[in-house]
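WARN no homologs supplied; continuing
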Amino acid sequence: MGDNRQEARGRGLSRRRLLGASAALGATAISAGPGPALAAWLAPTPWQPAGPFYARFKPLSIDNDLLYLPGHGERAEGRLIHVVGRVLDQSGKPVRGARVEIWQANAFGRYNHPRHQNSNLKLDPNFQGFGHDRTDDDGAYRFRTIKPAPYPDSVSWVRPPHIHFAVYAPGAEAWTTQMYFRGEALNATDRLLQGIADPHDRARVVVALERPGPEFEADSLVGVFDIVLGQPGLESKGA
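OK structure emitted
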C-alpha cells in the first residue's frame, strides 16, 4: 500500500496547477482567478445542514486523500474523483488557513459512522469517508476521493449522491453545505437540494464531473466547487 500511496502523492501536483487544470474543465470565474466577477459582493454558498453522520469522534486517518487508509493494501472501491476549489469571503478575497472538512457515503451508499451501522448497505473497509484540507494563500483546497452512491434516508426518501462540507475559517464558526452532482435524477426530488428556493443558488451547489487533462489520473473525474463564506451570524444555525 505504501508504494500505491507514494505513487499517488507523486502525482499530487500543486494546488495552483490543479486549479489551473480544473479551470480548463469549465471552472467558475471564482476558481479561474481574480477578475471583474469579484468586484461585486458575492452571495454566500447556500447553507446546508451537517446531517447525522458528521464525525464527532477522532477518525483513524484525516487528510485530503480518502482513497487509501494507513495499513491497508487496497484502495477504496468506486469511481475516483478529484474535488478542487477555493474558499472566499463575500468581498471575493481568498480565505487563507481555513480548515475544509468533508464526509460522505461510500460507493454503496454507506457511511462509516455509528449511526449508520444498522444499514444493510455494504461497508467498505478501505474507505473511512472523512477527510480534511487547509486552504493555501489562494484559498485553494483539494480532495481525492470516490463518487458516493445514493442511499435511503427514510422509507419514502432516497438521497442523491452528495458530499458534505464544513469550513472553519480562522475566528469564525463552521459554515456547512453539501455538494451535489449534475445529471443525477434524484436531485429533482431531494428535499434539501430543492429546499434552496432560488434556482441560481441551487445550481451553485451542483457540480459537473468532467474528464481530466494530463494533470490528473486518466481514470478519474474532476469537479470544481468554490465556497463563499457568509458573514458571521448570517446563517450560522440550522437543523
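The first strand starts at residue 80 and ends at 88.
OK
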